[in-house]
Every structure is written in structure tokens, then in C-alpha cells.
Amino acid sequence: MNHENIIDMLDVFTPDINATSLQDVYFVSMLMGADLSSILKIQRLSDDHIQFLVYQILRGLKYIHSAGLIHRDLKPSNIAVNEDCELKILDFGLARQTDSEMTGYVATRWYRAPEIMLNWMHYTQTVDIWSVGCIMAELITGRTLFPGADHIDQLTRIMNVVGTPNEEFLSKIQSDEARNYIRNLPKTPRKDFKRLFPSASPDAIDLLERTLNLDPDYRPTASEAMEHPYLKQYHDPSDEPVSPPLDIDSDGDLTIDQWKELIWNEIGDFAEERAKRLAAPTANNGAMS
Question: What class of enzyme is it (predicted)?
């Protein structure tokens, strides 16, 4: 994936001598100064910084989602930032295509969308938008919004903030067990986000409320979120690229040996392309010759 807000792959190599013996693959990426998790431990961020960081996360997500992918594990430690506040999304180990059947145990629990824990088998890209809301809340307060101790505690903490769901939401839960559990919870109203985030601006509050909507059908897409007034100073439709759809369906039934062969060939192709780039004259060298 080629995007300013997604970590670059500068090189890929293996110490193994052929596809049959392939065991280890190493990826080389750009060195970033820190991740959001480490930054949040040592300093509070200004509202301008928060706007810029949230915008960049959404800009990267727009590209990821346009490829037909869901990241599924957005969290502060998977977001790298350099000294210029430039941001890159890391770690696609849990990423899946949008039409794949999903498992419930994905994403770090504290940033996990409620529909994942409620066993929705075909959830959508808005699970990533929920994670953005959790990260944004943490950027504002310096504290994790939903630090659940376990699966049940996580759901309880979420309901205590966003309120227990209505029948429309309950009807979308496919698991009878999960639906009955939620239905039997004490009715809790949605908390006043102005009191929950007293230092946040009205626009920041509104974006938080939209991204942290319990019902995924009512959360904004990454593109829609970037159009929000809170991010207006950075939003530029002409500079928010999308990706061609990624088609990997045909690879789903490969054997391990076939996967090894594919990976081996990709490593070779990447090395060949990299050698060509390094050998090609730069614009300045071409002008001087």
C-alpha cells in the first residue's frame, strides 16, 4: 500500500535459500520517532495536534478502506508519529477484506468495537471508526476511555458511557446469547459528552459522539469523518487519495507450499524492482550528464 499515512515497506528479505525452506521473512520500514502510546505517557497534546493526528488517521483509513480492507487493530501503539507530527498506521496483521466472515476475538480489547464482542460475523469498516473515537478520546484526556478488564467488563464500560441500545440495534445482533445478555442489562442513558470531556471543543464533542455511536450503521465513514468541522483546517478532498480494490480472493485456498512459493516470488520481484530504482539516475544526475 502506497500512502503517506501508512507505514512504508523499504525492503523485504529472507535468509532462507529457496521457497521450500522458507521460514523467516524480514520487512524493513521507515524509522519513526515514537508511537502514540509512548507519547501519551509523557505529554498532553494541544487541540491543534489532536486535530492533525485524528485527520491523518482518517486519511490513512480512507485509503485502507477503499482497498476493501478493515484494519481491525487500531490503537495508539499501532500509530507511529515522528518529530513533525507526521503519522503512519502500522501493523496489518489482523487486517481482513470487508466481505470476509469475521471472528470475534480481534483488536486490542480497549479499542474494540462493541459489535465485534457481540459476535457480528460480517461487521463493516466502521469497526475502525469506533477505534478512532477511542483513540481521539484518549488524546483529549490522556486516559483510556474503556479500559475493560475482560470481555464482559469491556461491554459494561461501553454501555455506561454510550447507553444501552434500543430495539433496532438489538435486532441486528445475530447471537441469541449476546442479544439476551444486552437486553437484560439495566437501562442506562448515554452520558453527557460535554461533562465527560470538559476540555474538548463543541466540534470535538460532536465528532466523538458520531464515531462512538453504538450502532455501526450510524457511524461516519472515514471520508465523512474528514469532512467534519473539527477537521476543516486539514481536510482537502484533492489530497486524500484512494486505493484500487485489493483482490485476494483467489489466494484463499492455497496450500502452505503454494503460499511459500508466492511469498518467495514476491520477495524476488521486490528485490528486482528495488535494484532498478537504485540503479536509475536521479533527476539531478540526469541533468548533469
Answer: transferase
